[in-house]
Amino acid sequence: MVNKNIFNLKGKKSLITGGGGLLGPEHAIALANQGSEVFLIDIDKQGLDKGSERVKKANKSAKVETFHIDLKDESELKSLKNFLINKNVHIDILVNNAAINPKMDASNNSSGKVEDYKLDNLREEIEVGLIGTFLCSKIFGSAMAKKKSGVIINIASDLAILAPDQRVYSKNNNINTVKNFKPIGYPMVKSGMLGLNRYLATYWAHRGIRVNCLVPGSVKNKQTKKLIKEIESRIPLSRLAKKEDYHGSIVFLASDASAYMTGQILVVDGGRSIW
């Protein structure tokens, strides 16, 4: 017999990192639409406020709270966990979404070349995207383990399974004319997330925690017409993703619809990775 409430998240509490970014609020909207209360955290206070507004605009009945948190700071995350527990709020769903993803447009003054990529930039990307993911999983995952129930969703990228095709940043599709390369830090972080995903899935499976990874493709977000055209030519569905294209994937991974799935990656990239 099919469970008609298989996607229902009513009564669940969801914590989303990078809640002030592009996709964080979208993940929150998807979960709130299924009844989950959502908590957004980000170091960007202005982004958080805008993210919260986006969620409430999309779902007027959504229960959403924001916390200005530096997820590189373990003490801040522990304080947040204790604050929530004292309010009798136990996180059921953790979405590790935060990352530093350098924009590839005219405002990017960095060449992105390996030869001159600053180590400080690489360290910061790793601290936010990978160590931050680990810390959130450690702190909130441990609390889930005590209750023997929980879901962790790691948001990777198609660059976790593909190398960046730097030719899209060329005027004539020739790598020899590329001036601004996609930096190495982002693919390193997202690839590392796949290993963390497998490790945590096996580490906590016997404690009732499922850990899976969403691998999204490029999202349309004010890129130049030239860049959009180049990327679309590499995608079988011939378009970039809309921000809301990942709602269904997030709900699937967070709900009982994926009850027998852990340690896996869900690739939603318009088919780009099959070419």
What about the largest sheet?
7 strands, parallel
Q: Would you tell me the overall average pLDDT?
A: 95
The total count of helices amounts to 7
Strand arrangement, major sheet: 3-2-1-4-5-6-7
Q: Which CATH architecture is right?
A: 3-Layer(aba) Sandwich
Highlighted features:
275 residues; alpha/beta; Rossmann fold; 7-stranded parallel beta sheet; 7 helices; globular
Summed up:
37% of the residues lie in helices and 14% in strands.
Give a structural overview.
A seven-stranded parallel beta sheet has the order 3-2-1-4-5-6-7, sandwiched between helices. The protein is globular and about 55 Å long. The protein contains seven helices and seven strands. The chain has a single domain, classed as NAD(P)-binding Rossmann-like Domain (Rossmann fold). It is of the alpha/beta class and 275 residues long. 37% of the residues lie in helices and 14% in strands.
Secondary-structure topology with pairs:
Blueprint (H helix, E strand, L loop, with lengths): L12 E5 L6 H10 L3 E6 L2 H14 L5 E5 L5 H13 L6 E4 L22 H29 L2 E6 L29 H20 L4 E8 L8 H8 L14 H8 L10 E4 L7
